[in-house]
């Protein structure tokens, strides 16, 4: 009980810090320029770094303060590069990461995760009880279970399509050449998709250049959807939905 109270105090502390953001106008500029400052950063910097070093013993994927400020080479678990020229912003980012970690350590979160694991085990990963799955989803999917849950939900949603067209339907769409639908895709959608690919997640190492695996896979997904549903085809914004899903899947 004492450890949980201590964890809650830490969580509330970093939440308070990450909430202490003020936006002030820089009067030295000829135009209005917004500056973001973390209030009391000098006082709290050492405390936050100490908490971070302690937390890294639990989760080594957390950044170091130096990797965010001096080296600028920190990649988060999704592949986004994080670097800050302003120490206050680096401390703010660290506080958000610490808050998420402390939240995962609460008894409520642990019980919720156990409920998810129990449900998956009891239904043999088939997501069969719709009322229970709705209740669990409404209370949130634990981060480490999201790839599993999202895949199960997607496969359940497209079960009829796979039954109709076969389990290799996506591969077949990717390899389609010379059909009327493929010609329509090339004439009406390919140019816009090509333009949008590198705009999707430019700060992510998996989507930074045309040779990145994420870009190539994203193009396949968008192309396959156009061929599967030529009436809708490609609409701008689909790249962000698909790209975000690919970060988890």
Automatic annotation (TrEMBL):
Upper taxonomic lineage: Eukaryota, Metazoa, Ecdysozoa, Nematoda, Chromadorea
The Rab-GAP TBC domain, residue ranges: 140-249
Superkingdom of the source species: Eukaryota
Gene3D superfamilies: putative rabgap domain of human tbc1 domain family member 14 like domains
A Pfam family this chain is assigned to: RabGAP-TBC
Record-linked PANTHER family: RAB GTPASE-ACTIVATING PROTEIN 1-LIKE, TBC1 DOMAIN FAMILY MEMBER 2B
MF-aspect GO terms: GTPase activator activity; small GTPase binding
Protein name (database record): Rab-GAP TBC domain-containing protein
